[in-house]
Amino acid sequence: MGYHTPKEITEISIENGVKKVNMTFPRQFVLAILAGAFIAFASEGSNMAAYNLFNNANTYGLGKTLAGAIFGTGLMLVVLAGGELFTGNTLIFKAVLDKRVSLGRMLKNWGVIYSGNLVGSLIIVFLIFFSGQLNASHGLLGGVTIKIASYKVNLSFLQALSLGIMCNWLVTLAIWLSIAAKSISGKILGIFFPIWLFITSGFEHSIANMYYVPAGILAKTNETFAAASGLSAEQLSHLNVSNFIVHNLIPVTLGNIIGGAIFVGAAYWFVYVKACKQEC
């Protein structure tokens, strides 16, 4: 057979979870930094591809579609080149349910990977800002970067949580399909379509937001970018680190955990491990 069945994917994913928590701290942290950078590259590339379309209400949906086609590269790099991504590691929860990994070890892994992802993302934020890329179209890219970040910090808790659930439901399904495929081309296709769907839909990814929002916070320090954003002084003042953490990062992260650990991890563990003990 040219692909793994859902039951085989579940078994492989559980084994992967055990391997992930058994990695040494240096390996986990460096791979997490790389994954954070890969997702940040995908985020900035998506913005660069579609910022003119984002700035027009009539072409906004087309811009999201184009951005989604670019963004999948980030997860392809994580899966194929090697990286540890917090949102993907929510699938370790299956190994906890299977009593192969303790809850404490999973949470420790999540903390290390989340921190490393943040470091990798911020490296790209600063490199992009100082590279001058945001000057594109006389600062319009910088202005759109600010607008995207402002939108994200103004979501309600329930909005951010819901968008986070749906996002990582699709992201972990992309990882699920990549495990199913036995060829590199199959893995790329398995990743591409769910990620394209999540970005086009406008769902919220905690690690991607570690690029999107800090990039906007940094961009607003430039007067040209701030003016190009078209936001008021009050709106610009609301875009800050505190609001990023409270109004976006916390609820989106919680949503990402629910989407990946429960709707994919726990669901497939129940169907293909627990229920299979009696039926399969």
Tell me the total number of β-strands: 0
Beta strand %:
under 5%
Question: Radius of gyration from the CA trace?
Answer: 19 Å
Kindly state the percentage of residues in helix: over 70%
CATH class: Mainly Alpha
The low-confidence runs, each spanning 5 or more residues with pLDDT under 50, are none
Structural class: mainly alpha
CATH superfamily: Glycerol uptake facilitator protein
Query: How is the biggest beta sheet arranged?
Result: none
Shape: elongated
CATH topology: Glycerol uptake facilitator protein
Residue-averaged pLDDT: 96
Count the domains: 1
For the record, give the distance between the C-alpha atoms at the N and C termini, rounded to a whole number. 19 Å
Topology pattern, helix = H, strand = E: HHHHHHHHHHHHHH
Summed up, the helix count is: 14
Supply the CATH architecture.
Up-down Bundle
Task: Please explain how this structure is put together.
The protein is about 85% helix and about 0% strand. The chain is built from 14 helices and no strands. The protein has helices at about 5-20, 25-55, 60-80, 85-90, 95, 105-130, 135-155, 155-180, 185-200, 205-220, 225-230, 235-240, 240-275, 275-280. The longest helix has about 35 residues, at about 240-275.
